[in-house]
Amino acid sequence: MRKIEILTWILFLSLSSNLSALDANDKSVIRGSIVFRTYCALCHGENADGKGRLAEGKVPPPANLTKTFLNDAQKEEIIRKGGMGVNRSPFMPPWKDELSNEQIKDVISYINFISKTK
Ligand code: HEC
């Protein structure tokens, strides 16, 4: 091979490996965004700011998830058990029967990804 061809290959390979560099967490965030839009956005809002269509007039309002201070274990607990399960608003439903363990993990990855408090 000529030198220029070798250089072109090196460039091509380094570019294509960068493009496919989604790690496991990136993939979890992507799956989690789908879970979020399907099950959570109606209350928590498309932007997770707590301003979903079902939020109007609710006291307490659905949390602004971009500003949550809960750690992952606390997030998982309220998502699994709902507000009632952790002495908070019953308007936050329990999701343990609707979502798989992986979907719960993914939606937490998504919340952490969009969070401004991390
Ligand atoms: C029917 C409306 C509704 C839906 C749907 C809903 N939530 Fe909530 N959520 C709430 C309300 C209301 C609160 C606030 C509870 C409180 O403050 O007592 C809340 C609170 C939370 C909190 C606690 C945040 C904090 O900082 O305290 C998390 C995490 C959360 N929701 C995640 C989710 C996820 C993930 C989904 C989708 C799988 C979801 N919620 C779907 C209404 C909803």
Query: N-to-C SSE series?
Result: HHHHH
The ligands found in this model are: heme C
Strand content: under 5%
Main β-sheet: number of strands, strand sense, barrel status? none
Structural class: mainly alpha
Based on Cα principal axes, name the global outline: elongated
What's the rounded overall pLDDT mean?
92
Strand element count? 0
The rounded Rg comes to 20 Å
Helix fraction?
Answer: 55-70%
- What is the end-to-end distance? 50 Å
| Helix run count | 5
Low-confidence residue ranges: none
Organism: Leptospira ainlahdjerensis
InterPro entries: Cyt_c-like_dom, Cyt_c-like_dom_sf, Cyt_C_IC
Signal peptide: 1-21
Pfam families: Cytochrome_CBB3
Keyword list:
118 residues; 55% helix; elongated; binds heme C
Task: Please tell me about this protein's structure.
The protein is mainly α. Helix 2 crosses helix 5 (101-114). The chain has helices spanning 3-19, 24-39, 41-44, 72-85, 101-114. It starts with a helix and ends with a helix. Heme C is lined by residues 39-40, 42-44, 54, 58, 60, 62-63, 65, 68, 70, 75, 78-79, 83, 88-89, 91-93, 95, 107. Keywords: Electron transport, Heme, Iron, Metal-binding, Signal, Transport. Residues 1-21 form the signal peptide. InterPro entries: Cyt_c-like_dom, Cyt_c-like_dom_sf, Cyt_C_IC. Residues 27-115 form the Cytochrome c domain.
